[in-house]
Specification:
The protein has about 140 residues and is an alpha+beta fold. The protein contains 3 helices and 3 strands, in the order βαβααβ. The longest helix is centred in the first third of the chain and has 11 residues, at about 30-40. Bound molecules: zinc ion (ZN).
Length: about 140
């Protein structure tokens, strides 16, 4: 052993937990189909919420049941179907950027056909779950 096992002095993360242990994948919500699904599910114009996508701890996959790409719409529809969150609660969390607890012990189901995801992905533990774009020239003020 040439070098002793020292702490990495250039680590950007002072936490004892290691963010690098976890994969983080950005799932954009910009497809027309997903925008429409999310608008239906959240009973509001999803495009006006200024969301670019969400961070997940696994890659998007093609649904084995119907060929739809997994997305935030599946997460939202599952949360509504299982009663984990109400529409109001989720829209409020998206607007404010507040953390939305996810039940990672629960399956997530395809919004379109109901097939369960092959893995129970959820939000990553680091870096936040919601990725917002710049305000779309609206008067929307972010609280805090
Ligand atoms: Zn499906």
């Amino acid at each position: 052993m040439a070098s002793p096992p020292v702490q990495n002095p250039s680590s950007e993360y002072p936490n004892t937990n290691q963010p690098g242990d976890e994969e983080v994948h950005f799932w954009p919500t910009d497809s027309p189909e997903e925008q429409q699904n999310l608008s239906e599910l959240l009973q509001s114009d999803f495009g006006s919420l200024g969301v670019l996508g969400v961070n997940m701890n696994g890659p998007r996959v093609v649904c084995t049941g119907c060929g739809k790409l997994s997305g935030f719409d599946d997460v939202v529809s599952t949360a509504l179907k299982t009663g984990a969150h109400t529409v109001t609660y989720m829209v409020d969390a998206i607007r404010s950027g507040r953390f939305l607890p996810s039940n990672q012990h629960e399956n997530v189901y395809c919004y379109k056909c109901g097939e369960a995801w092959p893995k129970r992905w959820g939000w990553p533990r680091y870096g936040g779950w919601l990725v917002r774009g710049p305000d779309l020239g609206s008067d929307l003020q972010l609280a805090e």
